[in-house]
């Protein structure tokens, strides 16, 4: 892999430019290689709960190169490979199949035919398959797929030209032509599902960064041509955890153990197992960390899993939301605060002479907690392409062996946690009209290709409270973007409303956590915490409920019986509820304003609050 240096932010190495993702940089296009390209590089990221859930030993974040020092240090970041390899000159339109050997450090590919050597541009289309493989389109085969003469059909030359004609503005104005035999074909119809199969193209069974030493898969999937920037090229599977106080662990609290596990050779020691080099590494670490050799060897054995046993994780036990819900809702949370998790409970600011609308609102709110400081870890487990179909087609970040660690990024921020009255919620969601309404959404969920990913958040059943609180979280973020000083894209949500299996002893959940977690200074400005204090929070909640009443797309939005992929939304659109993809943990699905505000068929959880607020506003106008 050539030493090509470009800049990418650390957070982007997890999403959206993590392993398998395509990044465009000033006219160049690259794809992130798997974690084998990292070697022993990267800064350790500590998240025991998330590591236990994912069955890995730990996480690494891409090392940060000091500003202005990139040209003086060796490569320290993840590997990226130029893709697609087929490039063309924007001036002479000649196509070039770029070779890695032609790369020059800090130089872009140039056309060797034109006098001013313009920069070569990547081809727009690539091919992917449902198994997660990705490769260049075989443009030589495409150009000769409609050959008429015998000589054209027998031509194997790769002297191609990418021509744009002024005949139209569609794909039929673009064509790939062979300058040797004059055979050509336009790009019209290239996005059709079976078009590549018809021309004889097959899936490569590999990824762009794989070398000849890597074994190719014998893939039988039908490849499909897509634009390299299309949304279905890359579906990363990202897990996140908020670091909460955990019970004291003697080993974790042991400074000597931490010193050993933070040593640069620790990961290599675990991976070597009982190899001959193990004894040498153990002695080296013991000497550097000033601990006995027996201590290091015992720690190594404790952290070396049985190679014949695969980790079995009970999803119900290891669901991260259960522990997070307990940490936020516990009355002792403030006493357990740490440097990574500092929270405090605040009141709702109820007043004796408060208007009826605020009294009704306060009755529905159970607890408010502001988080002055939180730490979030986000880790990339793998990705899929073409269709997001869960784990069965997941491509691991290490496709040749079971990943012992995952790429991750940690960030700090602040947030507001609101839990709601369980009795009021149970009474509302037991209404037959509400249950029938949500049954329709759950029917769409069962038929969706996203069911596996969404069930991880909703639990075995989709509760009405989940859709309602998820919609509330979106409206909350939209309103906070006006009040707190943060833009909407820098805020994130966590919805605590999952259902539990029958017989589970886990307590019911009913709350939302809106937080900001960024790798820069915007993570801790303090504006979000201020909005969680009285009387700001009450005003924010009232305003968001009022804004949820109206949408510029009504009545089409309000009367919708199905929106988004698989009809997983009802009364929710970009004009009223949807957020940037970075904000929502389930991809802008399972949203419905109706369950917040109600309509003629279904009562909303806050319907009486809104009605009382409108009556008070009308009375105030009449009094004037």
Helicity, as a percent range: 25-40%
Q: What structural class should be given to the helix and strand makeup?
A: alpha+beta
Poorly predicted parts: 248-253, 306-317
Strand content: 15-25%
User: How many beta-strand elements?
Assistant: 21
Over the alpha carbons, how many angstroms does the gyration radius reach?
A: 28 Å
Report the end-to-end length measured between terminal Cα atoms.
76 Å
Secondary structure tally, helices: 20
Principal-axes shape call: globular
Largest sheet: 9 strands, mixed
Mean pLDDT across the residues is: 86
Mind sketching the topology for me?
Elements: E1 22-25, E2 28-32, E3 43-45, H1 48-54, E4 58-61, E5 80-82, E6 86-88, E7 95-97, E8 121-122, E9 125-128, E10 134-136, H2 139-143, H3 150-154, E11 160-164, E12 174-178, E13 184-186, H4 195-198, E14 224-227, E15 235-242, H5 250-253, H6 255-261, H7 266-272, H8 277-289, H9 293-302, H10 315-318, H11 320-329, E16 341-346, H12 356-364, E17 365-384, E18 395-396, E19 405-420, H13 422-429, H14 432-446, H15 451-458, H16 464-483, E20 491-496, E21 511-518, H17 527-531, H18 536-547, H19 594-597, H20 607-623
Parallel strand pairs: 4-19
Antiparallel strand pairs: 1-2, 2-5, 3-4, 6-7, 6-8, 9-10, 9-14, 11-12, 12-13, 15-17, 16-17, 17-18, 17-19, 19-21, 20-21
Helix pairs in contact: 8-9, 12-20, 16-18
